[in-house]
């Protein structure tokens, strides 16, 4: 049994409320959907036979092994090829735009999303803000992918790739596939959402090929397509911005952008640059969930033992990992953000040696974006956690393991409310 009564001493900035703000994505216009029609291969001459060209797709091995059933043991996992997350190029049906080579990486701090295309003068004003060194115009909306609601970006591959995580940005094949009309989906959406690498899926009323697994790490964004493909999906043109301002106070810049942009615009903070404030060095006990709230949340999660894992599910009959956390804490009156990367920002980090029942444990398990928070579980006590593990499994108790463990967070209801 771990002693969880030690006081917190680490300063956690109030700006963490903005760390993982989840923008509401506009829905694509159903009247603008265009269905992809396959064309027959014409006969060249009567003496020539028809040729059927097969698209050969290389699939990545994505299976892992269950963690050991012992408290806080190092989890042994098979070594995964760092490559293998890009499908072989498909047959060319039209000239594919060339993608410029990567020259340098650009760190993104803010993602702006509006319901309608942003006026050029507003984009120019955003570029002129103090500390802003780069602004990339993109498209953003929620698109149905094989029945799943997927937050999707439409991008210009040549100019957007520097804003992606290093391994993704460097992959020429990945961006060539996107330019050719494929979509790249997050590792979790591919692995647990059933969008197999190289497969064809229904996206916004047309057929799209899953050309790569690539987690961009921008809030709830789970898919990336070219801007040309975005047009065919009915995604608004130029209604979003990716902003780089590595030396600016992200919180202050976010506030300025919300004032100058059209009403209803949203600004998500990613990779923030925090200006530290002097102040308290410990959190009062009243900052956290009460004993009664913790018991209600734990009992609510326990009551869902055996329910199936489904990517994107929020309950009450099926869950993904962060959906279970959000639902269980809601039963205790605590409003939690939706995805694990956001839930990481709902309170101060606590040493694993001081973990208490009701604390959240987080992992970085995404090989396409190793720094991204991709998994969460609820600590139960005695080295055990309650978790919705992955597709094919169910909500269950599991021994805590430390492989890829990012840390432990003690939830503050007030902070959690601010992570929208």
From TrEMBL:
It comes from Planotetraspora phitsanulokensis. This is NlpC/P60 domain-containing protein. Belongs to the peptidase C40 family. InterPro entries: NLP_P60_dom (IPR000064), Papain-like_cys_pep_sf (IPR038765), PG_Endopeptidase_C40 (IPR051794). Keywords: Hydrolase, Membrane, Protease, Thiol protease, Transmembrane, Transmembrane helix. The chain crosses the membrane at residues 41-60. GO terms for biological process: proteolysis. GO terms for molecular function: cysteine-type peptidase activity. Residues 291-420 form the NlpC/P60 domain. SUPFAM superfamilies: Cysteine proteinases.
């Amino acid at each position: 049994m771990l002693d969880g009564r030690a006081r917190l001493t680490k300063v956690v900035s109030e700006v963490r409320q903005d760390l993982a703000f989840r923008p509401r994505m506009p829905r694509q216009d159903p009247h603008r959907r265009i269905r992809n029609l396959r064309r027959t291969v014409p006969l060249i001459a009567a003496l020539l036979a028809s040729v059927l060209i097969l698209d050969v797709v290389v699939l990545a091995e994505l299976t892992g092994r269950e963690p050991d059933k012992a408290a806080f043991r190092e989890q042994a996992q098979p070594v995964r090829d760092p490559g293998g997350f890009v499908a072989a190029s498909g047959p060319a049906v039209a000239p594919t735009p060339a993608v410029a080579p990567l020259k340098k990486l650009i760190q993104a701090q803010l993602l702006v999303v509006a319901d309608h295309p942003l006026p050029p003068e507003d984009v120019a004003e955003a570029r002129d803000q103090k500390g802003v060194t780069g602004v990339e115009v993109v498209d953003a909306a929620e698109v149905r992918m094989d029945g799943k609601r997927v937050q999707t970006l439409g991008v210009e591959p040549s100019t957007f790739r520097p804003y992606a995580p290093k391994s993704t940005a460097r992959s020429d094949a990945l961006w060539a596939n996107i330019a050719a009309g494929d979509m790249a989906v997050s590792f979790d959406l591919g692995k647990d959402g059933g969008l197999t690498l190289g497969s064809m899926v229904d996206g916004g009323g047309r057929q799209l090929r899953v050309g790569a697994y690539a987690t961009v790490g921008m809030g709830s964004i789970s898919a990336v397509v070219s801007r040309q493909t975005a047009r065919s999906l009915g995604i608004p043109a130029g209604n979003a911005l990716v902003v780089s301002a590595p030396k600016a106070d992200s919180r202050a810049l976010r506030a300025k952008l919300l004032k100058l942009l059209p009403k209803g615009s949203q600004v998500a903070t990613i990779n923030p640059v925090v200006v530290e404030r002097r102040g308290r060095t410990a959190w009062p006990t009243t900052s956290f969930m009460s004993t009664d709230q913790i018991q209600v949340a734990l009992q609510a999660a326990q009551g869902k033992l055996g329910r199936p894992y489904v990517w994107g599910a929020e309950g009450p009959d099926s869950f993904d990992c962060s959906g279970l956390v959000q639902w269980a804490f809601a039963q205790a009156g605590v409003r939690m953000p939706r995805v694990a990367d956001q839930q990481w920002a709902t309170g101060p980090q606590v040493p694993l040696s001081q973990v208490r029942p009701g604390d959240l444990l987080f992992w970085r398990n995404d090989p396409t974006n190793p720094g991204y928070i991709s998994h969460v579980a609820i600590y139960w006590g005695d080295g055990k956690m309650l978790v919705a593990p992955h597709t094919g499994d169910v909500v269950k108790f599991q021994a805590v393991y430390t492989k890829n463990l990012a840390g432990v967070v003690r939830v503050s209801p007030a902070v959690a409310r601010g992570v929208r």
